[in-house]
Amino acid sequence: MASTSLEFSSLDAHRAWLKSQARLPRGFRVGATRFGFVPAEVHKPAAMTLTLVALDQPTDAFAAMFTRNAFPGAPVIVGRRRLSSPTVAAIIVNNKVSNVCAPGGIDASERLCAGVAALLGVRPDEVIPSSTGVIGWRLPIEAMIGALPGAVEALQGESVLPAAEGIVTTDLYPKVRRAAVGDGSIVGIAKGAGMIEPNLATMLVYLFTDCDVPRDELRSSLRAAVDASFNRMSIDSDTSTSDTVALVSSRRVPCDLEAFRAALARVCADLTEDVVRNGEGVHHVIRVAVRGAPDEAFALGVGKAVVNSPLLQCAICGNDPNVGRLVMAIGKHVGAQAGDLDLSRCKLSMAGRVIFADGAFRLDPAAEEALVAHMRGAELYSSVAPADGLTFRPPVRYPPHERAVEIAIDLGLGKAACTVLGADRSHEYISENADYRT
Amino acid sequence: MASTSLEFSSLDAHRAWLKSQARLPRGFRVGATRFGFVPAEVHKPAAMTLTLVALDQPTDAFAAMFTRNAFPGAPVIVGRRRLSSPTVAAIIVNNKVSNVCAPGGIDASERLCAGVAALLGVRPDEVIPSSTGVIGWRLPIEAMIGALPGAVEALQGESVLPAAEGIVTTDLYPKVRRAAVGDGSIVGIAKGAGMIEPNLATMLVYLFTDCDVPRDELRSSLRAAVDASFNRMSIDSDTSTSDTVALVSSRRVPCDLEAFRAALARVCADLTEDVVRNGEGVHHVIRVAVRGAPDEAFALGVGKAVVNSPLLQCAICGNDPNVGRLVMAIGKHVGAQAGDLDLSRCKLSMAGRVIFADGAFRLDPAAEEALVAHMRGAELYSSVAPADGLTFRPPVRYPPHERAVEIAIDLGLGKAACTVLGADRSHEYISENADYRT
């Protein structure tokens, strides 16, 4: 799925690579500012980062896709309206509070856009808002309006890194990917580490390009790229209320449309890889290649059922090749969806080794040993016993490598295929989410 | 859902109560035996318990429901055949190895039934086999045949407790429930603590009665009772390959059919409560009452989506009323299933307090405090820091109480309702399942 195979041995090495990816395309500036506030819902001090992306000139070439969660956040509702704006000039993003189902949420988002517009000298409907963080809390809108000039002051046209850092919540590290297209480029950033099973869109992803692609082509290119990347991963099966992918072109550099689409697909696939690998508590990325399916949707469903099985996730976390749980997960999904299908030609492999065929497993101590070695090789880190005995924190804040636990499923039912990325389930995920808001 | 509200302050108190529930109906005997073996798939010593239930006389009154997983275990395949046997005389159950997708699995199950039949002087097709444990491993059939006489020798007609203890795997304690029906009774036992989201049947459940109910009525009564109990719970969303519920009557005592059906429904509901409360790593049982749904299946889907949300599960484990995740989970399901439904009349309560209505949350520090207190009151235990820093084990081996985190959802869409039981997600679940087979 990913086009690269990176390895990093230190935080500094990862940081240097991020910087090399981060050069902004022509026509964009980004800035971020951080400030404190007290949520109205719980009286505990919190901090928020406001991230501003501004175009040198408003552009008519922009595309966005949003969550299909039936309780979308206010910024998603406002963002959908913006799709019919003639032009956009800026994106404003805050973390910590997602502004979902909060009283007066849409008004708050529109006020923020108006504040940005006044400072930049553009129209409010040229500003796209995004919020991520706790669901149900109200935006601290007065404090945010007060902080906006700081974000404008920080604007610079060199690096997207301040934005990649500004939008994160539980992410361990910022995510930046780039691709060249002729003389132009596409640069993408993403946030998201939990509540990740996108449904037609995903977490927060911003893609910037100077390639001159008109609005309609931009939008169809984004749909195709998202469908083949973000929509084929899951960290925890939970679909965010704030998922947003936006793509904006400054239209500075002429480009070949096919080359652009290929580059966009690669950047999206690379960011998908980054998001899964940096998922909350992820020790192992799991790559499930499904083929022999009656259609692609069925293949996708099987792949999702496998990566979302809590029991398989735990086994993989423990480097335990409990492959019976793989069969359980496939059978659970097929049994619930289409109980009359004949799975007698189903074949399963792990690490390139056939472990199941003709209705029965092929297991022995040598296979067990090979599978354990494969899982250990794909491990990003092992849990470290926490100082307080209970609160697990990941010991690394960069991705040591891009290896995955490789599972191949041939359903023996048809010609369709699909590859899905997922992750294991660990103590660090529980610790992160048992008391996320404090 | 449960008909009781039990509290226990010690293992001894729970044990005494179990004994009071365990008196066998007329016409049944149970016995169990434990022995060691070495699995062919991994060369590490393991132990297995064989549990035998024998009727004094073969009976034509029996019913069974099995998993809808598309990779059913060999005993499930054999068990389905037994449904057309004229009579049954015994049930033989082993733990540790589930005999699912193992080479020669059906032959092994049939050999075991033949061994039981020879010892009891009945026909092989009068014996129902069940296996639970690791998926993919082969039954140690020679050792099992060798151990059978020990199980026969242990047969006694007083207590079902040896069977309730013999069938467990990761369960912390045996599960026994009973109900009187006139002069007769129904006694049920269950095992199951993980891989629990039954689909038309569930884990291993055996129900014994001396009430004289003919086969057809017995089977329809079981379908109704299972549908309203086991099919409305989930511990981890994973559907077992071995789920089996069997109900056998010795037909010794005349009974009123309506009273029987009500008693059966109560025993099934009580065992459902037990299974969830003893789920792997469960700190809190979650009861989700959904109403205002267009139909019951929709209500069930919403309830399942809520109890299966990993993020909500983690928040509840941490006594963190992160109710935004409740809205996320409902919206994820509705958005994926029926994106055009109008949820503007949706109302949510927790602990009897309205927390969401008219599209927005009603949260403040007082509500936060009340919700935290409710969650703490429903907690079964807190995690204890493990000696090795990593391997969490539950500190109690009995259910201290039957309180639950109470969530009510009125979708505002129709008249249908459904209540679903689920559980939170903890370090103990991860520890249990990261290396289950060793």
Portion in helices of chain A: 25-40%
Query: Gyration radius of chain A, to the nearest Å?
Result: 22 Å
Sheet with most strands: strand arrangement of chain A: 13-12-11-14-10-15
Largest interface here, residues on each chain? A-B, 84 and 85 residues
The assigned CATH architecture of the largest domain in chain A is 4-Layer Sandwich
End-to-end CA span of chain A: 36 Å
Biggest pleated-sheet summary of chain A? 6 strands, mixed
Which geometry of chain A do the CA atoms define? globular
Secondary-structure element pattern of chain A, one letter each: HEEEHEHEHHEEEHEHEHHHEEEHEEH
Q: Count the DSSP helices of chain A.
A: 12
How much is the average pLDDT of chain A?
Answer: 91
Salient structural properties:
12 helices, 2 domains, alpha+beta, Ubiquitin-like (UB roll), six-stranded mixed beta sheet
Written description of the protein model:
The structure is a homodimer of 438-residue chains. Chain A has helices spanning 11-21, 74-82, 105-120, 141-153, 161-166, 215-227, 257-277, 296-307, 310-317, 324-338, 365-377, 427-434; strands spanning 28-37, 46-59, 62-66, 88-94, 127-131, 175-181, 184-191, 204-211, 244-253, 285-293, 347-350, 353-357, 360-361, 405-410, 416-423. In chain A, α6 (215-227) links the parallel β8 and β9. The first copy, chain A, has twelve helices and 15 strands. In chain A, the strands form three sheets. In chain A, strands 13-12-11-14-10-15 form a six-stranded mixed beta sheet. In chain A, strands 3-9-8-7-6 form a five-stranded mixed beta sheet, sandwiched between helices. In chain A, strands 1-2-4-5 form a four-stranded mixed beta sheet. In chain A, α3 (105-120) runs parallel beside α4 and α8 crosses α10 (324-338). Chain A is an alpha+beta fold. The two termini of chain A are 36 Å apart. The interface between A and B is large, with 84 and 85 residues.
